[in-house]
Amino acid sequence: MREYPVQYAAVRKPKPDPSTLVFGKTFTDHMFLMDYTAGQGWHDGRIVPYAPLSLDPSAMVFHYAQEVFEGLKAYRNPQGGVQLFRPMENVKRINASCARMCIPPLPEEDALAAIRQLVGLERDWVPDQPGTSLYIRPFIIATTPSLGVHAAHNYIFCIICCPVGAYYAEGINPVRIYVESEDVRAVRGGTGYTKCGGNYAASIRAGERAEAAGYAQVLWLDGVHRKYIEEVGSMNVLFKVDGAVITPALTGSVLPGITRKSCLELLKSWDVPVEERLITAEELFAAAGAGKLEEAFGSGTAAVVSPIGEMGWEDRHVVVNGGKIGPLTQKLYDTLTGIQWGTQPDPFGWVVPVD
Ligand code: COI
Questions:
Q1: Ligand 1: which atom is nearest the Cα of residue 70?
Q2: Helix, coil or strand: residue 29
């Protein structure tokens, strides 16, 4: 495996109390950097002390948002080792995002080696309290100083890490989500299936409105018909209706979530009927009205498996499973986190040890 040069941080930061971790606020001592120059390709991969980046104010990322990112986690297993969950899926997905955003793809093995080496160096930052992990944020930004609207000639690939607890203040307790009828997050042919900052920038206004109304996140409808369910703010969404698990099909405007994919693979291995298809909000609320909406949950790297206890849509309101986590959601959460934290067997070979 490729090994990158390391410039060690002279001063190490104090580690936060693992019982008070807030998502994405504390960063480790080092970060990974690699440059891209047109004609030269990706070069000069290195680990350096965590520090601000210095960029020209005309760097293209600031103006036209040519950037992509990923999110994955490192977990402390019961033997004290550190392991990753399906990291090659993230590498492949960042390259799929790059293809859409005209960013040169990363050499896959080199990107994986960078993640493993950085996490190995930061292994003392991987917390060991239940439910905690080290969140890894790889991202690529366009750095060419130019205001012309074109693909850049220069990029930086950077990886930063932060110890995290639960993404939602609610933890594993069910969250309230609101079906957004006005703003849309993405349209087919756009960038909805990529992890690019612009998708999230477009989501902030509706997210703020939902929060002000007491909801944790927004449930997005498709941008054309405004009736098909797509995804929730920071996670994919799945519903158990009349015994089957249904989830929006990956039509191009939905993020192909790695946790989503893992949930579907687990459900199929348990012989739970699974349907990936178009789902209208009307169908969902009608199913709830008929007592057939048994469970609802989101899936994502940050959110893991997060039960949905209530849904609002204009003047309609439904409570799912009495506002409590359902048995299938709980089983998925337990199995997935058991594999991720190494407390359960890994029959699919999803776990990659760091050292
Ligand atoms: C993740 O789950 O890793 C994400 O990237 C969602 C996020 C925007 C917090």
A1: 5
A2: coil
Tell me, what's the pLDDT at 1? Answer: 83
Q: What confidence score (pLDDT) does residue 170 get?
A: 67
Q: Which ligand 1 atom is nearest residue 233's CA?
A: 8
Domain range spanning residue 305? 175-340
- Residue 81 CA to ligand 1 center (angstroms) comes to 24
CA-angle at 327, arms to 348 and 215, nearest 5°: 100
Please indicate, yes or no, if residue 6 is contained in any of the structural domains: no
Same domain for 146 and 243, yes or no, is: no
30 Cα–ligand 1 center, Å: 21
How many domains does the chain contain in total? Answer: 2
pLDDT at 172 (0 to 100): 78
pLDDT band at 355 (very low <50, low <70, confident <90, very high): confident
Do residue 218 and residue 303 come from a single domain? Answer: yes
| Residue 43 confidence (pLDDT) above 70 | yes
Contact 221, 180 (CB under 8 A): yes
pLDDT digits (tens, 9 = 90+) for 113-148: 999 999 999 999 999 988 899 999 999 999 999 999
Q: Quickly list H helices, the chain.
A: 60-64, 87-100, 108-121, 197-212, 258-269, 281-289, 327-340
pLDDT higher than 70, residue 193: yes
Question: Is the shortest distance between the CB of 234 and ligand 1 below 6 Å?
Answer: yes
Identify the residue whose C-alpha is closest to ligand 1 atom 3: 71
Mutate to test the pocket of ligand 1, among 234, 235, 340 (most ligand atoms within 8 A of CB): 234
347 falls within a domain: no
